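pls ignore typos typing on phone
cobalamin + seq
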Amino acid sequence: MARNEELFNAILKGQRKIVEEVVNKAVAAGGNVAEMLNDSMIPAMRTMGDKFSRNEVYVPEMLIAARAMAAGLKIIEPILAQTGHKPLAKVCIGTVKGDLHDIGKNLVAMMLKGAGYEVDDLGVDCDVAKFQAAVDRGAQAVLCSALLTTTMPYMKTVADALKDKGAKVIVGGAPVTQQYASEIGAAGYGADANDAVKVVDKLLGVRA
Ligand code: B12
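k done
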């Protein structure tokens, strides 16, 4: 299917109402929703992510685009489920124990969803048991967010506990660095939401 330029641009510009209109119209006309997702919606969020990495757009624009994407996804998700459309992989994300910051975590979750992953969002203040339970539900990657230097060390607790459990632990958040990720034995580190998608793609061997 060729890219639906109206849908692609509406997501880029964060025009939620237009996204809903275009998606509803396409669904009513019997359009292929999987193609719409793969050829127009996911590329729009990936383009947005690249712009974010190049500092061409900032957090507010990303959040608005992600909300427009989420509005479109909400319409097509039940149809995709019926047609047996498979997500790229299942991942989970949570802010670690003691930490209540969730704006960055939510942005990462939205980008991953936008990139075609099934995301088990565990919320904030997550202990090891919560992450472990998500792995038991099938998460292939465990993404941990921390915004406080006091909660960051809990990422090591998670990485240690999930070692050899079959899921890749990926860490991020403002105080976290690649060096810290390597020190605690995490499988990956991402500096921002776009990076998070690239790291997950790479570690799970997926290219969308
Ligand atoms: C908003 C905010 C709050 C809000 C949180 C609201 C919410 N729902 O999240 C509230 C008011 C509740 C809050 C509370 C506190 N906060 Co506060 N907060 C912030 C603030 C201003 C912005 C954080 C934010 O949302 N940034 C925007 C998002 C988009 O960026 P981000 O989180 O970094 O995420 C990006 C990347 O890091 C990355 N990323 C994030 N997670 C992950 C995960 C993975 C796996 C990957 C790959 C990538 C990734 O991708 C994201 C998108 O690009 C920061 C200051 C700052 N400049 O960071 C302070 C800040 C984090 N807070 C701070 C502090 C001290 C606190 C409090 C302890 C204050 C107090 N005395 O009560 C409490 C702690 C509460 C708790 N237990 O968590 C300090 C931390 C200092 C430190 N070094 O530890 C900061 C740095 C402020 C400061 N300069 O002092 N805070």
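The chain is about 55% helix and 10% strand. The mean pLDDT is 93. more later
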